[in-house]
Amino acid sequence: MSEYTQKDNRDASVGMVEKKLHSIAEPPHEMVLECGERLGPITLAYETYGTLNSKKTNAVLILHALSGDAHVAGYHSEEDQKPGWWDSMVGPRKGIDTDKYFIICSNIIGSCMGSTGPCTLNPKTVMPYGLEFPVVTIGDMVKAQKALVDSLGIKQLLAAVGGSVGGMQVLEWCVRYPGMVAAAIPLATTTRHSALAIAFNEVARQAIMSDPNWNNGDYYFGPRPETGLAVARMIGHVTYLSDESMRLKFGRRLQDKSDFSFNFNPEFQVESYLRHQGKRFVERFDANAFLYITKAGDYFDLAEQHGEGSMVEAFSKIAARFLIISFTSDWLYPTYQSREMVKAIKKTGRDVSFLEIEAEWGHDAFLIPNPRLSGIIGGFLNRVFNETTR
Amino acid sequence: MKLPGKQMRFDLDVIASWIEPGARVLDLGCGEGSLLEYLIQHKKVIGSGIEKNESRVAKCIEKGLSVLQGDINQEVEDYPDNSFDYVILSQTLQQVYAPDDLIRSMLHIGKKVIVSFPNFGHWRVRLQLLMTGHAPVTKQLPYQWYDTPNIRVLTLKDFRKFAREVGYRILKEVAIETQTVGREGNIVRVMPDLRATYGIFLIGS
User: Fold this and answer.
1) What is the pLDDT of residues B43-88, one digit of tens each?
2) Where are the beta strands (DSSP E) in chain A?
3) Which end of chain A is more exposed for a tag (fewer CB within 10 A), N or C?
4) B193 alpha-carbon distance from chain centroid
């Protein structure tokens, strides 16, 4: 996902928030990962907003995409230029209303945003894990998040909400812990990556791994693979946009000049935009974390992992009511992939609502302030809240 | 006949009066969900809907209804048999390309089916064709031949004949006369084939 964290001025903000850390899997009780290795201790970064009601029935778990973090809304300090990544959706009287719900946004293992991942210290070597870090899956991430939710004393989440790789976590939550999720809102997501999505991820990973500074993932005491990570981000960014959004945003316009300069400096606006995105990304993201999280996304296959190849079988495990949302111009996880989910859920006889929102912004559309999106998420949550607390 | 909730469109009122409390209901082409909303509120039904139009689906979901965006002909396919007590097709039959296939599918996924449609046998329609020689344009079917979505105009008699031929049982039938698709209306008992603007049928297989 990219950085469309515009402030929505019409609405209030949740205000000052702080990042919290939760530790689990202290040795010798390490978490056994899907790959068979053991990981522990594990730290998970998270933030919470709003107030948990006395019956603990108003908790909404938000799960973020590839490059996101636990900071979904509000500000960490007075100096912050930008609010959290989904501030247009999360706040007082917004789609996910902080006056009404207790919102948890959890980071993921493998990330570089405060949780245990390849850039954190391996307690055994007292050095950053690097490639010593085991390959984690979406299932592993959700297992860790479950421990966090348990620690907050919450028996059932009112809803799990997330887009893209966050949507995969939503799906995983629903089949892995069906009794714990009353409602699910997967946005712009898929039950498994298409060859196209894997291909883009692989090209992005190759960009990182072919940067000499990457040094087999061991770069934490030297120069970082900044070029590789920036290129990886540029590739990712193209897949988050769409033909239409790029045509509208850049067209063939040149940056600060009127004629070609006949060299390879950035000239087209789209080139300087991508370079800028790449550069900014390097300042906040870790190259190894990018490798691990994209791999987790590629490995995810709900039908294989939970339904012996059948999506209907996998979805027959769920108890949650579903609201599935896709976007017309999302070519990374196109609408047909959401429709496959809808079809499978219908076959199980469970409740599902579905909407394909007309949007030119490609995969990133779910991050952009959109009254329609806020309206349906708010309405859906309200209904589930009334039903579960009746 | 006293029908509950006068704020509803008259034809939807009739449909609502046929449905028993707590039933599972699927509304095909549910629009902005007014029938579903009414049925959930007054009949405590477990309701869901299918609608093609994005903004109408959004309105439904905002209201807290369970609604899928999609084409009714395709979306009707994926439910298990007998998932619903009632599957409703209100004033859409005349726009369906393959009505026989659709009704068959509806009777698979639902125990009973409710269909309603404008009556092309209304005396005004008959008179217009006879007197003017033009394809009839009425308040119920207000389009010209070249821009109409209503590709399957039929009369009450046509529907009865169709049901008889394919072997569906007509469990209930009400002919109504409404002012446009307004809230006011009344049931037509005398010469319904000529005088009704709409027919509503409850059928079973």
Assistant:
1) 999 999 999 999 999 999 999 999 999 999 999 999 999 999 999 9
2) 20-24, 31-32, 38-39, 42-49, 59-63, 90-91, 96-97, 102-106, 121-122, 127-128, 159-163, 183-187, 321-327, 352-357
3) C
4) 17
Residue A146, helix vs strand vs coil: helix
- Give Cα A181 distance to the centre of its chain: 18
Would you tell me how many other CB atoms lie within 10 Å of the CB of residue A179? 9
Q: Is A177 helix (H, G, I), strand (E, B) or coil?
A: coil
**Residue found by looking up tokens 């030297």 in the block:** A222
Domains and CATH numbers, chain B: 10-204 (3.40.50.150)
Helix or strand holding residue B161 (H, E): helix B156-166
Residue A90: both structure tokens together: 């999360």
Query: What is the spatial distance between Cα A253 and Cα A238, in angstroms, rounded to a whole number?
Result: 17
pTM comes to 0.94
B7-66 residues touching A, CB cutoff 8 A? 48, 54-55, 57-58, 61-66
User: Helix (H, G, I), strand (E, B), or coil: what is residue B113?
Assistant: strand
pLDDT of residue A206: 98
A20-193+300-388: in CATH 3.40.50.1820 = yes
